[in-house]
Write a structure and sequence with these properties.
The complex is a heterotrimer of chains A (266), B (271) and C (259). Chain B has 271 residues and is an all-alpha fold. Helices cover 78% and strands 1% of the residues of chain B. Chain B has helices spanning 18-38, 42-59, 68-99, 108-123, 126-137, 141-165, 169-177, 182-216, 225-233, 237-270, and one strand at residues 7-8. Chain C is of the alpha/beta class. Chain C has helices at 43-51, 73-77, 95-100, 109-112, 119-131, 147-160, 177-194, 205-211, 234-241, 251-258; strands at residues 2-12, 18-28, 32-36, 58-63, 66-67, 80-83, 117-118, 165-168, 197-202, 214-219, 222-228. Chain C starts with a strand and ends with a helix.
Chain lengths: 266, 271, 259
C-alpha cells in the first residue's frame, strides 16, 4: 500500500516555480565552511577565547584618566587631521568631479582620465597611503592628513560626479544655451543644483575621516591611535580603557552633530 | 556712500551672502588654528616632493617573483576574511535590525537600546577592535574577522532597520489582518519587502569590508596588511609594488561588481 | 536681410529616427515666426539646431552670416537666446542670478565662477526684470515662482543676453491660457520694440494666427506650409496636421481641439 498515492486534489495548483534559494544557501554555507577551514579558525580556540573574553574585558574595568589632558590634546590633533584631510579631499573633488560627470565633462577623454584618477585614489587604502607619505615626509599628522585627503577625494569625487550626472538636462541646457563656457556651466547649472546632497556627502566623509584619523597613529601619522597602540602593547588596560572612551565619546559627539546638521540641511 | 565698485555679487546689497561668508570664515579659521597641530609646513611639503619622486623611483624595481604565490595566498585570505565577516554580520544584523526598526520593534525601549548598541558598535574603527581582539585571542585572521564582523553589525543593523522602516505598511496590515503572529508578520510581510535594499546594503558593505580587511594585518589581524607593512619597514620594494597592484585590482574589481549588482538589484526590483 | 538661414538641413538621431528630411528656409531679421506642427514633426529639433543644442547630420545653419560649427558655437549662442518649455531655470538660485546667467558669455570665467558681476550687468538685469514685470521678485528663489512667472524669468534671461534672436521652444505648453496669452504678448512686444527676431514653436493654431507675422507648418520632418499668418487656410491646416497614410480624417478637428 502506497501512502503517497495522491488523491486528485480539488484545485490543482500549477507547478511551483523552482525556488533556487536552498541551492544558494547551501553554496554559501559550503563556501563559508571552506573559508573557516582555510583560515584555520578553530572553534576550540574561539570557545576558549570567549570563555576568557569576560575575564579579558574585565581588565578594562578601571579606566585610568590620569593623563586625560594629554589624551585630549592627542584627540585635538586627530580632529585637526580629519579636518585638513576632508578639506583637501573637498578641494580635489571639487575640481575633478565636473570632469568625471558625463553630462558636464568637456571631453570624453577628460571624463575617462578623471574617472580613473578617482578610482585609483579610492582603491588605495588610506593606511597604505599614510605609510608612503610617512616615508616621504617623516612622522607627524601632516602625512596622515594627506593620506586621508587623497583617499577620500576619490570617494567625494565619485559621489559628486554621480550627483552632477543627475542634474536635470534642461537646467544644463538652459545655462549652456546662453553661451556659458565649461567652468560657468559647472558653477551655475552644476553646483547650485546639488548643493544640499554635496554637503551631506562632505559631512559623511568628515565623520569617516575622524574615525580613520584615530587609527592613523598606528603607522606614525600622528593622533591618538599611536598612544592606544603603545598602551595596549604595554598591557596597560587602565590607560587603554581611558583612551578608548575618549575616542568613543568624540566619535559619538561628531556623529550626533553631523546627524543634526544633516537633518537641518535636509 | 561707500566707494563705487564695478563688481558686485547677485544679492540686494551687492555683498556676498552672510551665511556663506560666515561658514567659509569658520572653516578657514578652524584650519588656520589647527595648522600648527597638523604641523602643516608647505616648505616641508614642497621639499618632500623630491623624496616622493625618489621613493616612487625605488618602487619600480623588478618584482620579487618568488613572492607571488605567498601574495596570492594572502590576498585570498583577505577576501575570505571579508566574506566570512560579512556573512556573520548578516546573520547577527537581521534580528538586530528588526529590533531597531521603529515599525517592527516589540517595544520602544528595545528600539532605543538596540539603536544605541548599534551606534556604539560602529563608533570605533575596525582597527581599534582588531587591536583589542588581537590582545584577547592572539594573532591571526580570527581577531580580524571578529573586529570586522563586530563593526559591520553596527552599520548593517542600522541600514537594515532603516530599510525596514520604509516598507509599505499596507501588505503588513494585510498579513496581520489574517491573524498572522508577531514573528510571521515580520517574516512574511516586512522582510520580503526590504530584501532588495538589504541586498544592496550587503554589496556596499562587502566592498567597504574588503578595503578594511586589507589593512587589518597592520596590527597582526590577518590578511595582506601585514606583508604590506613589513615590506615597507624592511624596504622590500620589490614586494611593495606587487602588493599595491594586487590590492588595487581586487578592490577595483569588487567596486565595479558591487556598483553594477547594486544598480541591478535596486533598479531591477523597482521596475 | 535674413538673420537665420537654413540650408538643406537633415537630422537623423542615433536611434535611426529621421527628424528632419531636408529643410530650406530663411528667417528675416526682426520678424516673428511661428513653427506649427503636430508633435514629432521636428519643430523642436529644428529650433535646437539654431542654437547648436543639436548638430545637423547634413546641411548647415547660419546665424547672421556665420555658419554654426563646433568652433564658434559659444560665440553664436551669445546672439541666439533660448526660452524653454520647462523654463529650465536653476531652481536654487535667485531670480536675479538666473537672469544674470544671461550675461555669462560676456564675462571671462574668472570673475563669474565666484559669482562676481559688473554693475552694468546688474543694470541690464534690472531692466530685463522690469520688462517682464518681476522687479519685486528679484531676490526670491526661482522655484518659489509660479509657472507663468518662471517663464517670464526665462524671457528676462534671454533679454539679458542682448540677443539678435530669441528662440522659444513650446514656451506656453506648460502654462494655463491666461499666462500663455501674457507670454506670447510679451514676446510680440519684444519683437516690435527691440527688433529682435523671434522664432516660436507652437501647437496652438489660434495663438499662432494672432501673434505671428509668418507661419511655417511642418509635418514629419518637412516644411509643408510657409506663408503669412493670414494665408493659413483650413486646407493648409489639414496638410500640416495630416497623418501619413491617412488622406482625410479628423486630424483637423484634433488640431483645432488642441488650440
Amino acid at each position: 500500500m502506497k501512502p503517497t498515492q495522491a488523491v486528485p486534489s480539488a484545485t490543482a495548483l500549477p507547478p511551483k516555480p523552482r525556488n533556487l534559494f536552498p541551492v544558494w544557501l547551501a553554496t554559501v554555507l559550503a563556501v563559508l565552511w571552506l573559508i573557516v577551514r582555510d583560515l584555520e579558525i578553530s572553534f576550540e580556540t574561539l570557545a576558549y577565547g570567549v570563555a576568557d573574553m569576560g575575564e579579558y574585558f574585565s581588565r578594562y574595568r578601571e579606566p585610568d584618566f590620569s593623563n586625560l589632558s594629554r589624551y585630549m590634546e592627542l584627540m585635538g590633533v586627530t580632529l585637526a587631521t580629519a579636518l585638513w584631510g576632508t578639506v583637501f579631499a573637498l578641494v580635489v573633488a571639487f575640481f575633478l568631479a565636473p570632469l568625471a560627470a558625463r553630462n558636464f565633462t568637456p571631453h570624453p577623454l577628460a571624463y575617462r582620465a578623471a574617472r580613473e584618477a578617482l578610482n585609483f585614489m579610492r582603491a588605495m587604502p588610506d593606511l597604505l597611503l599614510a605609510l608612503i607619505f610617512v616615508a616621504a615626509l617623516g612622522l607627524g599628522p601632516l602625512p596622515g592628513a594627506l593620506a586621508l585627503g587623497v583617499h577620500t577625494a576619490g570617494f567625494l569625487g565619485k559621489f559628486f560626479a554621480e550627483s552632477l550626472e543627475r542634474v536635470d538636462q534642461g537646467v544644463y541646457e538652459g545655462v549652456a544655451a546662453t553661451g556659458a563656457n565649461f567652468p560657468q556651466r559647472v558653477m551655475y547649472a552644476g553646483w547650485p543644483s546639488i548643493l544640499r546632497e554635496a554637503l551631506g556627502y562632505v559631512l559623511y566623509i568628515l565623520d569617516r575621516n575622524v574615525r580613520m584619523a584615530s587609527v592613523l597613529g598606528l603607522v606614525g601619522a600622528g593622533g591618538i591611535g599611536l598612544a592606544l597602540h603603545d598602551t595596549l602593547r604595554l598591557f596597560d588596560y587602565g590607560q587603554s580603557a581611558a583612551l578608548i572612551l575618549v575616542i568613543l565619546a568624540t566619535i559619538l559627539i561628531i556623529d550626533y552633530a553631523s546627524a543634526w546638521l544633516r537633518r537641518r540641511l535636509g | 556712500m561707500t566707494t563705487v565698485s564695478i563688481w558686485r555679487w547677485p544679492t540686494p546689497n551687492g555683498l556676498p551672502p552672510l551665511p556663506l561668508v560666515a561658514s567659509l570664515c569658520a572653516v578657514l579659521g578652524a584650519m588656520w588654528l589647527t595648522a600648527p597641530l597638523v604641523e602643516v609646513d608647505f616648505v616641508r611639503l614642497l621639499g618632500s616632493l623630491g623624496k616622493m619622486a625618489a621613493f616612487a623611483g625605488q618602487l619600480f624595481v623588478e618584482p620579487d617573483w618568488a613572492y607571488l604565490p605567498q601574495l596570492f595566498d594572502k590576498m585570498l585570505e583577505t577576501i575570505e576574511m571579508t566574506f566570512l565577516a560579512t556573512m556573520i554580520a548578516v546573520v547577527v544584523s537581521l534580528p538586530l535590525g528588526l529590533l531597531a526598526a521603529r515599525n517592527a520593534t516589540p517595544h520602544v525601549l528595545v528600539y532605543r537600546l538596540t539603536r544605541d548598541l548599534l551606534s556604539l558598535m560602529r563608533a570605533l574603527p575596525e582597527l581599534v577592535w582588531a587591536l583589542v581582539f588581537v590582545s584577547a585571542v592572539g594573532l591571526g585572521p580570527l581577531p580580524g574577522v571578529m573586529a570586522l564582523a563586530f563593526v559591520t553589525v553596527g552599520f548593517m543593523g542600522k541600514f537594515f532597520a532603516e530599510s525596514i522602516e520604509v516598507v509599505d505598511h499596507r501588505p503588513v496590515e494585510g498579513v496581520a489582518a489574517h491573524g498572522a503572529g508577531w514573528l510571521q508578520v515580520r517574516f512574511f510581510a516586512m522582510l520580503p519587502q526590504a530584501l532588495p535594499d538589504f541586498a544592496g546594503t550587503v554589496m556596499y558593505i562587502l566592498d567597504h569590508n574588503l578595503r578594511a580587511a586589507t589593512i587589518l594585518g597592520l596590527v597582526g589581524a590577518g590578511g595582506i596588511g601585514y606583508d604590506l607593512v613589513m615590506s615597507m619597514r624592511l624596504f622590500q620594494y620589490d614586494r611593495l609594488l606587487p602588493i599595491a597592484i594586487a590590492i588595487y585590482l581586487v578592490v577595483t574589481l569588487l567596486d565595479r561588481l558591487s556598483d553594477q549588482l547594486r544598480s541591478r538589484i535596486i533598479h531591477g526590483a523597482r521596475k | 536681410m535674413s538673420t537665420i538661414s537654413i540650408e538643406s538641413v537633415t537630422k537623423r538621431f542615433p536611434n535611426g529616427f529621421e527628424a528632419l528630411k531636408g529643410i530650406n528656409t530663411e528667417i528675416a531679421a526682426g520678424s516673428f515666426t511661428v513653427i506649427l506642427g503636430p508633435s514629432g514633426a521636428g519643430k523642436s529639433t529644428l529650433l535646437r539646431l539654431m542654437n547648436g543644442l543639436e548638430t545637423p547630420t547634413g546641411g548647415s545653419v547660419s546665424i547672421a552670416g556665420e555658419t554654426l560649427g563646433k568652433a564658434n558655437l559659444r560665440k553664436v549662442r551669445v546672439h541666439v537666446a533660448m526660452v524653454f518649455q520647462q523654463f529650465n531655470l536653476v531652481e536654487r538660485l535667485s531670480v536675479a542670478t538666473n537672469v544674470l546667467t544671461g550675461r555669462l558669455a560676456q564675462r571671462s570665467w574668472f570673475g563669474s565662477v565666484f559669482y562676481l558681476f559688473r554693475n552694468e550687468d546688474m543694470d541690464i538685469t534690472r531692466e530685463a526684470l522690469a520688462r517682464v514685470g518681476l522687479t519685486d521678485k528679484a531676490w526670491s528663489r526661482a522655484d518659489k515662482l509660479s509657472g507663468g512667472q518662471q517663464q517670464r524669468v526665462g524671457i528676462a534671461r534671454a533679454l539679458a543676453q542682448r540677443p539678435k534672436v530669441i528662440l522659444a521652444d513650446e514656451p506656453v505648453a506648460s502654462l494655463d491660457p491666461v499666462s500663455s496669452e501674457e507670454i506670447m504678448g510679451l514676446l510680440r512686444e519684444i519683437c516690435d520694440r527691440d527688433g529682435i527676431t523671434i522664432v516660436v514653436n507652437l501647437h496652438q493654431v489660434d495663438l499662432a494666427k494672432r501673434f505671428a507675422d509668418r507661419i511655417i507648418g511642418m509635418n514629419s520632418g518637412r516644411v509643408v506650409f510657409d506663408g503669412a499668418s493670414a494665408e493659413l487656410s483650413p486646407q493648409a491646416l489639414r496638410t500640416i496636421y495630416q497623418r501619413e497614410g491617412i488622406e482625410h480624417d479628423n486630424s483637423l478637428d484634433l488640431a483645432l481641439a488642441y488650440a
